[in-house]
Structures are given as structure tokens and as C-alpha cells.
Amino acid sequence: MKSSVTIEEFLKKQQDCASKAILEGNPKVELFGGLDLTFESPYKTPTRAWACLVVFDGKRVISKTIVEGVVKTPYIPGLLAMRELELMLKAFEKSNIKPDILLIDGHGQAHPRLCGIAMHIGQELDIPSIGVGKKLLVGEFSYPAPRRGAFESIIYKSRVVGYALRTKEGVKPVFVSAGHKVSHAFALELTLSLCKYRIPEPIRLAHLNLKKLR
Questions:
Q1: Interatomic CA distance for residues 59 and 133, integer angstroms
Q2: In a domain? residue 145
Q3: pTM (2 d.p.)
Q4: What pLDDT tens digit does each residue of the chain (214 aa) get?
Q5: Is residue 186 part of a domain?
Q6: Domain extent at residue 189
Q7: CATH code: domain of residue 183
Q8: Which of 56, 104, 154, 177 has its CA 20 to 30 A from that of 202?
Q9: Does residue 40 lie within any of the structural domains?
């Protein structure tokens, strides 16, 4: 993706992305990838930023890759991928060990134009992907019961675009949606299986590595 893309070009890219969505699949997964990104000054543009890919086998970290760059695009609601996609892709490309699936701090189909950053990355790399957001971006839902594993559908434009999932008893839900080559049901099940805390381990571990850089 060229770094000088305009907003209009990226909106078209999102429309194309949504039209190509593959929201089915039950892939065999042995290595789980977690992608996250942090900024030196999140409210300034340009700013230095770092992306981290952690590859996790379910018990331990197999590899971690951190890349640094300068982000020149401001945050625009619904256009997170325009700001973060390029650096996240670089982290994946640099990693010597490739995961079987990516879990991304962001959204998949649960997005105003039905193509969040997890769907962008999944399609760009042609790898199964799941978006796990900490805040609802679009749609309506009922809060799930307080027990671990409880979930409720996120409804947007009269369709299910993901789930609000309680990953730990008594904590706020996360918002899970399929990105590429997985179903929403598979995304829900896999995300829960990887959660010791609120956030699935691959993303949490990537976040912890980035936190050391701030």
C-alpha cells in the first residue's frame, strides 16, 4: 500500500475490501499471531510508532518482531487502517516465523464500511485473521452475562457483524469479528480459548512488548 494514499482512495479500498470478504472457515491453527501498534505521541502527526508481531504456540512466545517507523497520517474515525496498516504489515514481513492466524487489536467486519483493519491485513497477506477491539466501533448489542464465555451478537445493518464477548468474569467485554477466511463463530471460539485475561494472549503479549518502548 502506498503511504501517500488519499482519504478518497482509502475509502474506495475499504469498499473493495468489504466486497471481497471471506467470512467462513475453520482453519487448523498451531501458531497464533498477535499484532499491536503504539505511538510515541498518539495525538500528534507525524509521530514515531512501533508495531509488534508476537507468535505464540498456546503456551509460550515463539518469536517477537518489532518495527519502527514514522506515521504521517492522523487518526480519522473509521480509517484506523489508513494510519496503522503499513507498519503492521512490515512487522509481519520482517518476522522469520509466520503464524497460521492473526489476532489484531482492532476490528474485522464490525466496521462502518464492513472492513476494519483486521480484514485489510488478512486480505493483504491472505492469512486468516480476527479483529478483537476493546471498544465498539459500530452496531448495537446487549451486554452479555457477567460470566466468562457469555456473548451477544453485534447487529449492524440488520446483520451479525461480530460478537460482544465476556472473556473473564466481571470484566468489560471485547468485540470480536471475523477478518479473513474465518467465520464469526470460529473467531469467537478461538478468541475465548486464548484468553487468560480480558485480551487474548497473542495481542496482550504484543502490547506488553510495546509498552516497554514508550
A1: 23
A2: yes
A3: 0.96
A4: 445 789 999 999 999 999 999 999 999 999 999 999 999 998 899 999 999 999 999 999 999 999 999 999 988 889 999 999 999 999 999 999 999 999 999 999 999 999 999 999 999 999 999 999 999 999 999 999 999 999 999 999 999 999 999 999 989 999 999 999 999 999 999 999 999 999 999 999 999 999 988 6
A5: yes
A6: 7-211
A7: 3.30.2170.10
A8: 154
A9: yes
Grid cell at residue 192:
475465548
Write down the residue that cell numbers 451486554 correspond to. Answer: 143
- In total, the chain counts a number of residues equal to 214
First vs last C-alpha separation in the chain: 27
Name the residue type at position 93. Answer: E
Residue 2 placed within a domain: no
